[in-house]
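User: Second chain of the day. Same drill as before.
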Amino acid sequence: MGIKIITDSICDVPKEYIGRYGIRVMPLTVHFGDESYKDGIDFSLEEFLSKLEKTKVLPTTSQVPPAEFLEVYKKEISLGNKVISIHASSHLSGTYNSAVMAKDTIGREDIYVIDSMGITLGAGLLVIKAARLVEEGLGFEEIAKEIEASRNGVKHMLILDTLKYLHKGGRLSLSASVAGSILNIKPILTVAGGKLVLFEKARGVKKAIAAIMNTIKDNGWTLDGKVVGINHIADLEHLRMLEKEIIREYNVKEIIRGEAGSVIATHGGPGAMALYFEI
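Assistant: Same format as last time:
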């Protein structure tokens, strides 16, 4: 009998941490016309981006259906486990609602479904935190309450190469998606109230990284002693540049590095990278 941590593939928990903590990841589905693929299972990010480059129509994505959650939850309960299920923001994906429907169908108090109010590794940091709290021996309700208390303090700072994918996928308005690609303008997004918000633009990646570091200082935040997350979509070179700046400015406790999955890449596009931390 124990506590099982479950999440979905949009939370982009790095494989190293999935294996280390025995986290169960529920994959979303990516559709290229009549072809469907499970995120993180049926192909790698490199294979996805290759396919994305060749297609004339952007792929679509679909949430994890309630039936899949129902099956997994029933299995864990039959093993005597309690479940903490942490998912990407309900404002950006229907997967959280699918998980709630499955929980309500079972009608058990030992399943706790949490809306992270975040996306990609920003949500993933909460998943990893929950798994570590399990290792520390905290109780089921204590962990759930701790994660819910932490979620509004997780900051997302995402540098994109373009906003066209987010706009075409319906995750950002047309007015917000207008960014000057001719001038090498890099949009910087954050998450507020579970929604993606454009809060800054910078000319080039170096200035975008500088804008992020300045935002941290201007708000009186610090990364000293913190667990921070960084990830990318086919842009390891610039991710290393971001990591170098973080290490130069702050004495962080730990950096969790990762690569976004194909669902996030569908909306963010290649060349994106991000920083996440809890204040």
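The radius of gyration is 18 Å.

User: Great, on to the next one.
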